[in-house]
Amino acid sequence: MFDGINIICFSASYAVAFALALLGLWARPAWRRPAMLLAASAGVVAHTWYLVTRVQELPAAPLSSPHDWYIAVAGLLALAYLALALYYPRRSLGLFMLPVVLGLVGAAALSQKTTLASLQIPRFWTLLHAGLLMGGTVAVLVGFVTGIMYLLQSSRLKRKQPIDDRFRLPSLEWLERVNSRSLGTAALLVGFGFLTGVLSQLARGNGASVPWTDPVVLSLAAMLLWLIVAEGFRIIYPAARRGRKVAYLTLAAFAFLLLTLASFTMQDTLHGENHSVESRSTPTEAEMFQLAKGVLR
C-alpha cells in the first residue's frame, strides 16, 4: 500500500503537469507555468523518495527488477524534462516528454518487483552495468522525443505555417544537435553496458558463459549493433548528420529499445540465472578488474 501511494503521488503530479501543458494549447494564464513546474518538481521529489526506498529494501542488488528499472528511467527522463522546462520556458516540451514518463511509470506498475540480478556478481559491477544501460535507454528516449519534434517542426516550416505562441518547439538546429548527440551517447553507453554485462558473466567462473541465446541478450545485442551502424553511418556519411535522416535513425533505435524492454519485462529470471546463493565464493572486485584489463588488451 505504501508503494502504491507513492507511485500514485508522482504519477498524479506528472499527469497534472501534462494536463497543464495541454491547457497551453488553448490558453496561457499567468499561473499555468508556475503550477506546471511545481507539479513536475513535486513529482520528481516523490519519485526520488520512492527510488531511495526501493534501494533500501534490497541493497545487495538495487534497482534490478523490471519495476525498478522502469521507475529509474522514468525518473531520469522526468529530471531531464524539468531541467529543459526551466531552461526553455516558452517551449512545449511537456507535450512530448511527459507522456513518455507516464508510459514508463505505467509499465513499472505492470511489471514484477522481483530482482533479476545475480547475487553472485559484485554489487559495483551490477550497479555499473545497470547504470550504463539506464543512461543509454534515456539517451535513446531523448533521441526519440527530439526526433519526433524535429520532424514535426520541419513539416511546419516546410508548409510555412505561422508560428503560434501556444505551441512553440525548439529550433531545428537545436533539435538536430540533441538528436545527433543522443545517438552517439546511446551507442557509447549501451556498448559499455553490454561489455560490463559480458565481463560480469565471465568473471563468475565455474564454467559460466555468456547466454547468447537469451532473449534479453539477443535483443540488446541487436540494439547495440543498430546503434553502432547508425552512428558509423552518421559519421561516415555527412548528409546523415543533419536533417530528417538522423531523426529517422533515432526513431529506429527507439523501435529496437522497445523490443529489448519487452524481452526484459517478460523474463522471470535474467539470463537464465538461479538467484539462490551458491556455496562458491563470488568474484572479487580485483578479479573483475583483471578480467576487464585482459579483454580490453
TrEMBL record:
<dbReference type="GO" id="GO:0020037">
    <property type="term" value="F:heme binding"/>
</dbReference>
<protein>
    <submittedName>
        <fullName>Cytochrome C assembly protein</fullName>
    </submittedName>
</protein>
<feature type="transmembrane region" description="Helical">
    <location>
        <begin position="215"/>
        <end position="237"/>
    </location>
</feature>
<feature type="transmembrane region" description="Helical">
    <location>
        <begin position="6"/>
        <end position="27"/>
    </location>
</feature>
<feature type="transmembrane region" description="Helical">
    <location>
        <begin position="70"/>
        <end position="88"/>
    </location>
</feature>
<feature type="domain" description="Cytochrome c assembly protein">
    <location>
        <begin position="83"/>
        <end position="270"/>
    </location>
</feature>
<keyword id="KW-0812">Transmembrane</keyword>
<dbReference type="GO" id="GO:0017004">
    <property type="term" value="P:cytochrome complex assembly"/>
</dbReference>
<keyword id="KW-1133">Transmembrane helix</keyword>
<keyword id="KW-0472">Membrane</keyword>
<dbReference type="InterPro" id="IPR002541">
    <property type="entry name" value="Cyt_c_assembly"/>
</dbReference>
<feature type="transmembrane region" description="Helical">
    <location>
        <begin position="95"/>
        <end position="112"/>
    </location>
</feature>
<feature type="transmembrane region" description="Helical">
    <location>
        <begin position="124"/>
        <end position="152"/>
    </location>
</feature>
<dbReference type="Pfam" id="PF01578">
    <property type="entry name" value="Cytochrom_C_asm"/>
</dbReference>
<feature type="transmembrane region" description="Helical">
    <location>
        <begin position="183"/>
        <end position="203"/>
    </location>
</feature>
<feature type="transmembrane region" description="Helical">
    <location>
        <begin position="246"/>
        <end position="266"/>
    </location>
</feature>
<feature type="transmembrane region" description="Helical">
    <location>
        <begin position="34"/>
        <end position="50"/>
    </location>
</feature>
